[in-house]
Structure prediction request, 822 residues.
Amino acid sequence: MSAGVFSEMRVLLRPKWLAARRRRSTKGRAGRLLVLVGIGSAAWPLIYLAIVRLLSMLRGIEEIGPLLASRLLGLGLLLFLGILLLSNLIASLSSFFLARDLDAIRAAPVDWLSLYSARLFETTVNSSWMVLLILLPVFAAYGHVYGGGVLFFAVVVAAMIPFLVIPATVGSAVTLLLVRMIPARRSRDMLAITSLVAAALLVLVLRTLRPERLVNPETFRNLVDFLAVLRGPATPWLPSGWGADVVMGSLVGSLDPFHLVLLWSTAAATFVIGAALHYRLYPGCFTRAQEGSDSRLRRHAGWVWFERVLRPLGIQRRELILKDVRVFFRDPTQWSQLIILAVLVVVYVYNMRVLPLQSGAMITRFLITLVVFLNLVLTGFILAAIAARFVFPMLSLEGRTLWLLRSAPVDTSTLLAMKFRIGVVLLTGLALVLSITTGLLLGVPGGLFALNLLAIVGFGSAFTAQALAWGILYPQFESENAAQIPTSLGGLLFMLGALATLGLVTVAQVWSLRGFLVSGLPGREPRTAMAMELWMGAGLTVLLCVVATVIPYRLAAARLSKIGRWSAGG
Amino acid sequence: MIVLSQLTKRYGDFTAVDAIDLQIAAGEIFGLLGPNGAGKTTTLRMIAGIIEPDSGSVRIAGNDIVQDPLAARRVLGFVPDRPFVYEKLTGAELLRFTAGLFSLSGPDVESRIEELLGLWELLPWRDQLVESYSHGMRQKLIISSALVHQPDVLVIDEPMVGLDPRSARLLKDLLRSYADGGGTVLLSTHTLELAETVCDRLAVIDHCLVVAGGTMADLRRTASAEDAGLEEVFLRITRGASDAEIDRVLGR
Prediction:
């Protein structure tokens, strides 16, 4: 690339950089930064310590310890690669096709390569920063346990740059091709197709991992087979495998530069192919993406029925809910995410079904009870992910149209209450379906089942309140793409808060039932959970969930009522 | 009907609106004029209850917009300067939603929606998503949404944006009839022709202060330009760019 391209790139990226800097320096941001630093300083050590502990355990296992550590890193990077690809697909739709400054840039004499490079850089940063933040303590833990020095961290940096660039170039190119393939006027609907692609990728990733094989060694004929599977690269054709090999190689003294070269050359090749596609296709695709949908909508019988159901709420509340539901189902950037979540849920339930709980004498009742709690954690995690996707953006999506609500006789508390109701109904409904299905598949005993259901209903309201609170504390009023809103800092903070709630409730339940849990260990007298233990678990669950709902809800209400104090005037 | 007392808004060290006093009676059309960044939009957004003042008060039909916001907003119709609306609702749905915010629904609202869309020639687009509307069509839709609940007070920021000449004429006639029927209109505009022909009284805001106000005759006297049109009066009051400055910019 010539110096002219770099100079133009600097010009194109400068407004973004200045906007980001000013966002940081705006009044009130200091407090939020403190919250971020606070939560970060709590989350990082946790991730770091958990991985250090795990790696230390693995290191103690002769022969297969380093192999398992390498495989673990490969699987982690594979998961992150999938997340990055999906994230880049969504982000590139915004940066290449929906951003409001594109009209002005396209009207200016800007070189195509400069535009491509600048937007690719922006897409990469927007999609990757969160993954990078999570990877940081992971690499630090690997470096610590295996005694990696300066060379290790240099290798990590050298491997991670192309690792992040590859999904960005591939994601941008796929978005470009999808916009080209979809008929004009419907190009904004491409996110639905993107979601299908992502869903297919997710299934592929999960099938590649085949986790049930590793927990059920009986499927291997002998130890040699097991070792052979571990020794072979997990994904020899994917950058995640190359990255893991490079990083582990530098730690155990067998660094093979071939994989590093492979990473960089693949990044360069995908960049060149992406640029060529951009040169050929972008002008036409951009034109197609500008046309609005021409769909003519009549009042569907379903809506009339839904309106009737909501009638008891009164006119104002009914219209607020109807509006949100209509906008949701007509905006592909919102509803298309349902596809991914549906796949996630199906895969999850399937995995629960294939868990080898009833086979083999090695599995104790203690382990089975642990799986029940693991199920609670994973169901909670899915709920948190759904809340991040659908509830967190709710208030941000009102941003540019907030004038209508603010100038109408609508109390902010009514507005919040309606959003809360929508969120609670969505999350609790899904939570109950998930919990009851998986609970029945696992054969959870009655008392424990009730306790799990109580927790999951509590998570429904707690996560909704927290998502609304973080959503109004970190609003993304100017976002052009609903799918991108949860990838913001506020979205990350919400996830961390929700996971903390999830952890606390689970720990409280495990602590209350510790006597019952221990009774399931080999050599102990097995017994059922006592009523006292169950009541204590239920009490703590209710207490924690009420606190985790009421505090954020009040915070959101207070913040929303003050919205007139800080929203800028013209 | 609208009373502003010492209305003030600051953003950090910057004062956007400084102690404005205004009284607008029922049946009156009042125009706010001023250069870009003078504080007109901020003033209108405070009147509509979108942003809160730092000091001073806004009373609409006797109700304080901060103390009793719901009562004040119940009689208010607001048209913002930028026509942002829910892109994924149809025109009819948006009007139904706005009526719902004012707790109105049923056959009366449906016939009102037909009436308003018909007036602005939007009936063929009533079931189209707003995202497919042109800028002018959105403006017509937003004006309709401000009128759907038959408010006593209309606050309009830049009403002419995107309107074709026929619609612009329709708007002028509509505002006049609305005021003649007892409604109060406060509008901010850069279209001096609109201000001159429609407004009963005007105020000029410059650098966050009201620098002149009154009828057209009062403004002419203030500007010492007895026979001049509003454009000349406005430029004298706000000290517009000189010919020399224009020549310099154009490199002459």
